[in-house]
Amino acid sequence: MEVKEVLKQVQAGEISVEDAEQFFRRQPFEEMGYAKLDTHRKIRSGFAEVIFCSGKADEHLLQIFGRLYAQDQEVFGTRASQAQYEMIQKQYPQTIYDPVSRIIKIEKEGKTRQGKVAVCTAGTADIPVAEEAAQTAEYFGTQIERVYDVGVSGIHRLLSNLDTIQQANCVVAVAGMEGALASVLGGLVDKPVIAVPTSVGYGASMNGLSALLTMINSCANGIAVVNIDNGYGAGYLAAQINRLAVAAV
What we know:
- It is built from eleven helices and eleven strands.
- By secondary structure, it is α/β, with parallel strands linked by helices.
- The chain is globular and about 60 Å long.
- It starts with a helix and ends with a helix.
- The mean pLDDT is 89.
Protein backbone atom coordinates (compact mmCIF):
# COMPACT_ATOMS: atom_id res chain seq x y z
CA MET A 1 0.00 0.00 0.00
CA GLU A 2 1.28 3.48 -0.91
CA VAL A 3 1.41 6.50 1.41
CA LYS A 4 -1.29 8.37 -0.53
CA GLU A 5 -3.60 5.37 -0.39
CA VAL A 6 -3.22 5.16 3.40
CA LEU A 7 -3.96 8.87 3.82
CA LYS A 8 -6.98 8.66 1.51
CA GLN A 9 -8.36 5.71 3.49
CA VAL A 10 -7.95 7.64 6.73
CA GLN A 11 -9.73 10.63 5.18
CA ALA A 12 -12.56 8.40 3.99
CA GLY A 13 -12.86 6.73 7.38
CA GLU A 14 -11.97 3.33 5.94
CA ILE A 15 -9.09 2.78 8.37
CA SER A 16 -8.36 4.27 11.77
CA VAL A 17 -5.64 6.75 12.63
CA GLU A 18 -4.07 4.05 14.79
CA ASP A 19 -3.87 1.62 11.84
CA ALA A 20 -2.29 4.32 9.69
CA GLU A 21 0.20 5.04 12.45
CA GLN A 22 1.20 1.38 12.47
CA PHE A 23 1.80 1.53 8.71
CA PHE A 24 4.17 4.48 9.05
CA ARG A 25 5.96 2.94 12.01
CA ARG A 26 7.04 -0.12 10.05
CA GLN A 27 10.79 -0.37 9.79
CA PRO A 28 12.09 0.76 6.39
CA PHE A 29 13.05 -2.77 5.36
CA GLU A 30 11.70 -6.27 5.79
CA GLU A 31 14.13 -8.78 7.26
CA MET A 32 14.04 -12.16 5.50
CA GLY A 33 17.33 -13.55 6.79
CA TYR A 34 18.87 -14.01 3.36
CA ALA A 35 17.55 -10.65 2.12
CA LYS A 36 16.46 -7.27 3.43
CA LEU A 37 13.67 -5.93 1.26
CA ASP A 38 13.75 -2.14 0.92
CA THR A 39 10.04 -1.58 1.49
CA HIS A 40 10.42 2.22 1.77
CA ARG A 41 12.34 2.69 -1.47
CA LYS A 42 9.28 3.85 -3.39
CA ILE A 43 8.51 6.38 -0.66
CA ARG A 44 12.05 7.78 -0.81
CA SER A 45 12.77 7.63 -4.53
CA GLY A 46 9.42 7.17 -6.27
CA PHE A 47 10.49 3.78 -7.65
CA ALA A 48 9.90 0.46 -5.91
CA GLU A 49 12.64 -2.13 -5.42
CA VAL A 50 13.38 -4.36 -8.42
CA ILE A 51 14.63 -7.96 -8.29
CA PHE A 52 17.91 -8.95 -9.96
CA CYS A 53 17.00 -12.59 -10.60
CA SER A 54 20.24 -14.04 -11.94
CA GLY A 55 22.10 -16.19 -9.44
CA LYS A 56 19.34 -16.28 -6.83
CA ALA A 57 18.30 -19.60 -5.30
CA ASP A 58 14.84 -20.66 -6.47
CA GLU A 59 13.35 -20.57 -2.97
CA HIS A 60 14.79 -17.12 -2.26
CA LEU A 61 13.60 -15.70 -5.58
CA LEU A 62 10.09 -17.08 -5.15
CA GLN A 63 9.71 -15.67 -1.66
CA ILE A 64 11.16 -12.25 -2.56
CA PHE A 65 8.89 -12.08 -5.61
CA GLY A 66 5.87 -12.91 -3.46
CA ARG A 67 6.68 -10.39 -0.74
CA LEU A 68 7.16 -7.53 -3.20
CA TYR A 69 3.98 -8.47 -5.03
CA ALA A 70 2.02 -8.55 -1.79
CA GLN A 71 3.23 -5.05 -0.96
CA ASP A 72 2.40 -3.23 -4.21
CA GLN A 73 0.32 -5.73 -6.24
CA GLU A 74 3.01 -5.56 -8.91
CA VAL A 75 6.63 -6.63 -9.14
CA PHE A 76 9.46 -6.36 -11.64
CA GLY A 77 12.53 -8.55 -12.09
CA THR A 78 15.51 -8.45 -14.45
CA ARG A 79 17.85 -11.11 -15.88
CA ALA A 80 15.41 -13.93 -15.23
CA SER A 81 15.78 -17.32 -16.89
CA GLN A 82 13.03 -19.36 -18.53
CA ALA A 83 13.29 -21.87 -15.68
CA GLN A 84 12.85 -19.13 -13.07
CA TYR A 85 9.80 -17.84 -14.90
CA GLU A 86 8.22 -21.29 -15.07
CA MET A 87 8.79 -21.75 -11.34
CA ILE A 88 7.20 -18.39 -10.43
CA GLN A 89 4.38 -18.70 -12.94
CA LYS A 90 3.13 -21.87 -11.23
CA GLN A 91 2.38 -19.85 -8.08
CA TYR A 92 1.55 -16.54 -9.77
CA PRO A 93 -0.20 -17.39 -13.08
CA GLN A 94 -0.52 -13.72 -14.03
CA THR A 95 3.26 -13.40 -14.32
CA ILE A 96 4.58 -12.20 -17.69
CA TYR A 97 8.01 -13.11 -19.08
CA ASP A 98 9.87 -11.68 -22.05
CA PRO A 99 12.66 -14.03 -23.17
CA VAL A 100 14.33 -11.28 -25.23
CA SER A 101 14.92 -8.82 -22.39
CA ARG A 102 14.72 -11.56 -19.73
CA ILE A 103 12.28 -9.41 -17.75
CA ILE A 104 9.69 -11.02 -15.50
CA LYS A 105 6.85 -8.99 -14.04
CA ILE A 106 3.34 -8.60 -12.76
CA GLU A 107 2.00 -5.20 -13.67
CA LYS A 108 -1.15 -3.36 -12.65
CA GLU A 109 -3.75 -3.05 -15.38
CA GLY A 110 -4.60 0.37 -16.76
CA LYS A 111 -1.30 1.95 -15.80
CA THR A 112 -0.86 5.38 -17.43
CA ARG A 113 2.38 6.31 -19.16
CA GLN A 114 3.49 9.90 -19.69
CA GLY A 115 6.05 11.87 -21.64
CA LYS A 116 8.27 10.15 -24.15
CA VAL A 117 11.66 8.45 -24.21
CA ALA A 118 13.22 7.26 -27.46
CA VAL A 119 15.15 3.99 -27.20
CA CYS A 120 17.45 3.54 -30.19
CA THR A 121 19.72 0.68 -31.19
CA ALA A 122 22.59 0.53 -33.62
CA GLY A 123 21.71 -3.02 -34.66
CA THR A 124 19.17 -5.77 -34.18
CA ALA A 125 21.61 -7.68 -31.95
CA ASP A 126 21.41 -4.79 -29.44
CA ILE A 127 17.65 -5.22 -28.96
CA PRO A 128 17.82 -7.45 -25.84
CA VAL A 129 19.62 -4.69 -23.91
CA ALA A 130 17.38 -2.02 -25.44
CA GLU A 131 14.25 -3.92 -24.44
CA GLU A 132 15.52 -4.15 -20.88
CA ALA A 133 15.82 -0.35 -20.91
CA ALA A 134 12.51 0.23 -22.67
CA GLN A 135 10.46 -2.11 -20.49
CA THR A 136 12.04 -0.79 -17.32
CA ALA A 137 11.06 2.77 -18.22
CA GLU A 138 7.58 1.61 -19.26
CA TYR A 139 7.09 -0.17 -15.94
CA PHE A 140 7.93 3.09 -14.17
CA GLY A 141 5.31 5.03 -16.14
CA THR A 142 7.14 6.24 -19.24
CA GLN A 143 5.88 6.21 -22.81
CA ILE A 144 8.50 4.61 -25.06
CA GLU A 145 9.25 5.14 -28.74
CA ARG A 146 11.38 2.28 -30.12
CA VAL A 147 13.74 3.13 -32.99
CA TYR A 148 15.75 0.01 -33.74
CA ASP A 149 18.53 -0.83 -36.21
CA VAL A 150 19.62 2.74 -37.03
CA GLY A 151 23.38 2.35 -36.69
CA VAL A 152 25.99 4.53 -38.35
CA SER A 153 26.75 2.00 -41.09
CA GLY A 154 23.54 3.27 -42.71
CA ILE A 155 23.13 6.77 -41.30
CA HIS A 156 20.11 7.47 -43.54
CA ARG A 157 18.08 5.06 -41.41
CA LEU A 158 18.71 7.23 -38.35
CA LEU A 159 18.06 10.51 -40.14
CA SER A 160 14.71 9.28 -41.44
CA ASN A 161 13.57 8.82 -37.82
CA LEU A 162 15.08 12.03 -36.49
CA ASP A 163 11.80 13.92 -36.04
CA THR A 164 10.48 11.20 -33.74
CA ILE A 165 13.70 11.04 -31.73
CA GLN A 166 13.95 14.81 -31.32
CA GLN A 167 10.46 14.96 -29.78
CA ALA A 168 11.50 12.72 -26.86
CA ASN A 169 12.39 14.06 -23.40
CA CYS A 170 15.38 11.74 -23.29
CA VAL A 171 17.17 9.42 -25.72
CA VAL A 172 18.69 6.03 -24.92
CA ALA A 173 21.39 4.99 -27.39
CA VAL A 174 22.22 1.27 -27.30
CA ALA A 175 25.19 0.12 -29.37
CA GLY A 176 27.93 -2.45 -29.49
CA MET A 177 30.87 -2.72 -31.91
CA GLU A 178 32.53 0.73 -31.76
CA GLY A 179 29.51 2.40 -30.09
CA ALA A 180 29.37 5.44 -32.37
CA LEU A 181 25.58 5.82 -32.28
CA ALA A 182 25.60 7.73 -29.00
CA SER A 183 27.96 10.40 -30.32
CA VAL A 184 25.89 10.88 -33.47
CA LEU A 185 22.67 11.22 -31.49
CA GLY A 186 24.36 13.58 -29.02
CA GLY A 187 25.05 15.95 -31.88
CA LEU A 188 21.50 15.82 -33.24
CA VAL A 189 19.22 16.30 -30.21
CA ASP A 190 18.78 18.93 -27.50
CA LYS A 191 17.82 16.40 -24.81
CA PRO A 192 19.96 14.16 -22.57
CA VAL A 193 21.37 11.05 -24.22
CA ILE A 194 21.98 7.94 -22.14
CA ALA A 195 24.58 5.76 -23.85
CA VAL A 196 24.48 2.01 -23.28
CA PRO A 197 27.46 0.02 -24.58
CA THR A 198 26.66 -3.60 -25.35
CA SER A 199 28.87 -6.66 -25.51
CA VAL A 200 27.85 -7.20 -29.13
CA GLY A 201 30.92 -7.50 -31.35
CA TYR A 202 34.06 -9.54 -31.80
CA GLY A 203 37.82 -9.25 -31.69
CA ALA A 204 38.92 -5.81 -30.53
CA SER A 205 35.41 -4.96 -29.29
CA MET A 206 36.52 -6.79 -26.13
CA ASN A 207 33.00 -7.73 -25.02
CA GLY A 208 31.77 -4.14 -25.01
CA LEU A 209 34.84 -2.39 -23.65
CA SER A 210 35.54 -0.72 -26.99
CA ALA A 211 32.00 0.72 -27.15
CA LEU A 212 32.22 1.80 -23.51
CA LEU A 213 35.46 3.71 -24.12
CA THR A 214 34.06 5.32 -27.28
CA MET A 215 30.99 6.56 -25.44
CA ILE A 216 32.95 7.84 -22.45
CA ASN A 217 35.31 9.70 -24.79
CA SER A 218 32.55 11.19 -26.95
CA CYS A 219 33.07 14.80 -28.00
CA ALA A 220 29.29 15.32 -28.19
CA ASN A 221 27.74 17.12 -25.22
CA GLY A 222 24.93 15.90 -23.01
CA ILE A 223 25.85 12.20 -22.99
CA ALA A 224 25.84 10.07 -19.86
CA VAL A 225 27.16 6.49 -20.01
CA VAL A 226 26.03 3.44 -18.04
CA ASN A 227 27.83 0.13 -17.73
CA ILE A 228 28.11 -2.51 -20.46
CA ASP A 229 24.74 -4.20 -21.15
CA ASN A 230 23.10 -2.19 -18.33
CA GLY A 231 19.73 -1.69 -19.96
CA TYR A 232 17.99 -1.55 -16.59
CA GLY A 233 20.18 1.31 -15.36
CA ALA A 234 19.54 3.26 -18.56
CA GLY A 235 15.79 2.71 -18.39
CA TYR A 236 15.65 3.78 -14.75
CA LEU A 237 17.60 6.97 -15.42
CA ALA A 238 15.52 7.74 -18.50
CA ALA A 239 12.34 7.38 -16.43
CA GLN A 240 13.70 9.84 -13.86
CA ILE A 241 14.57 12.39 -16.55
CA ASN A 242 11.19 11.94 -18.20
CA ARG A 243 9.40 12.52 -14.89
CA LEU A 244 11.22 15.79 -14.45
CA ALA A 245 10.29 16.87 -17.96
CA VAL A 246 6.62 15.97 -17.48
CA ALA A 247 6.49 17.78 -14.12
CA ALA A 248 8.00 20.91 -15.66
CA VAL A 249 5.22 21.26 -18.26
